[in-house]
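WARN no homologs supplied; continuing
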Amino acid sequence: MRSYCLFVNFLMSGFLMLVGLVSAEEESSIKQRRLLVGTWEIRFSAVKGIDYPGEVGKRLTFTSEGRVLRSGGDNVITFKLNPAARPCHIDFALTNQKDKSVLVVKGVYRLTGDVLEICAGTPEDERPKTISKLEIGYQLLKRVASSK
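OK structure emitted
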């Protein structure tokens, strides 16, 4: 009976440690999401190292609820962060309002003060391994307004 109790205590301790790690990761993600909240302007955009000026000047607003607001289009965009990964991961889910289909785009990001760099491709692409203008899709954004 004593060994059974020790075993149960061991399992419970491991479970509580795991719950602590999960909540620490979630807390880190929430903290990082708060740092993204605000309006950002795309200052530079490239596809595989080639300038893509069509996106420059467009604005994106990141909300505390994990949404990305962008003018026009039929998509609702949400984002999910994993700041513990190296480089940090960001996943965008694009939900079409007409047919409710969802596309997921895997990316990486780096946040340095009011500068945000994101590398991501298309739903068929693997997550980029680095943050570089030579990746599938690269954008450099500058914060233009904070949301309080």
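The chain has a mean pLDDT of 84.
OK
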